[in-house]
């Protein structure tokens, strides 16, 4: 049951794979060119939300899911949506419908590019939904390390490639568990898995747009769970980035998941290292915004904090502008030594806005100002920004006919899964009750 692919075929399929590709969004201003020297950031999903007081996980409501999409649509450093986001599902939705309900929520509440997963033939209805509203989506073919692919992943690859849609090839190995404990060995197995998926896609449809993913983690040998925030993952990502840049194939880095259970100091450094090194080592995409602990929890508050981190990394990657105006030799001569100063100069009024990144959820007050303002933390500022976004940000809606098509395809999927026995009578009753709400589908 082992397939061995001739090296010449691998090399030919690598040559067939585009080095960059167009990823059109529902609104053309949100469309992307994935590849080359650009890093795009996406939403990192969570199975559940968290309580902001206790930080304990719980299932999200439909409204929380839709509000979460709205917040993410408003954040300028969120460039596209990954599968499941923001949550794997929400209250009242059977598991087999979670992925499709999640996609519908994103299509309804965001104009950004969308990526989808696969489960129980869900890609059939996801492709129909995308075609109904006139968009493209990034499909997924996920391997099962070590060196194994299951039928549902192969079928997903066929369906997306045959539909002419781009495809993300993902492994998901844990070094020390489903891959060698060494970083170099983990690179070997990850490359073997994702390149095999790339070969499959190119044989199905030559020229298929591919985004391979280095989705690797280390096993924490003290507990057996993945060490999501390990610096070793950054080393693995950096090496993989260099390899796939040589191949000329766009690469998605490991999702920036922290091990911390709340937005704290640990979460900040675990996520910041990941996004900075991804950018500096040549990644093309990274799932970053909103994850709190692995793929288990997500919250818009964390996504707002991540928006600031992403903005800082983006500013660093822009580098230093060096020209006659930025060198400011004449201005330095004009101002001279003390008592000269630069605050009142036109050059300062222009260039501070271009040179400095100003975070929106950070505390930069002096101590007296901070005390007078109520000793607010970054979480307080992030909460205020979330409330402001939900009051003012109005995503571009679907047309009435597009909305009808989305709901029709969801209903087709519900009947399909009910016939297959994946939705019980009790689940369907609860599901239908939620749909009878006057605010359906948004609450």
Q: Would you summarize the structure shown here?
A:
The protein has 443 residues and is an alpha/beta fold.
Mean pLDDT: 96
Query: How do the strands line up in the largest sheet?
Result: 3-15-14-11-9-8-7-6
Largest sheet: 8 strands, parallel
Low-confidence stretches: none
- In quaternary terms, these chains amount to single chain
What name does CATH use for the topology of the domain at 10-318? TIM Barrel
Taking the alpha carbons of the first and last residues, their distance comes to 48 Å
CATH architecture of the domain at 10-318: Alpha-Beta Barrel
What is the CATH superfamily of the domain at 10-318? Trimethylamine methyltransferase-like
Fraction of residues in helices?
Answer: 40-55%
Number of helices: 16
Gross geometry: globular
What Rg is obtained from the alpha carbons, in whole angstroms? Answer: 23 Å
Name of the level-1 CATH class of the domain at 10-318: Alpha Beta
Number of DSSP-assigned strands = 17
Structural class: alpha/beta
Percent of residues in beta strands: 5-15%
Q: Can you tell me about this structure?
A:
This protein is α/β, with parallel strands linked by helices and 443 residues long. It has helices at 7-16, 62-74, 95-109, 122-133, 151-162, 183-204, 231-247, 265-281, 300-318, 324-327, 329-335, 346-355, 367-372, 378-392, 400-419, 425-435, and strands at residues 20-23, 32-35, 40-43, 49-50, 57-58, 80-81, 113-115, 137-142, 167-170, 173-175, 210-213, 216-219, 226-227, 251-253, 285-289, 291-293, 297-298. It has an eight-stranded parallel sheet with strand order 3-15-14-11-9-8-7-6. The termini are far apart.
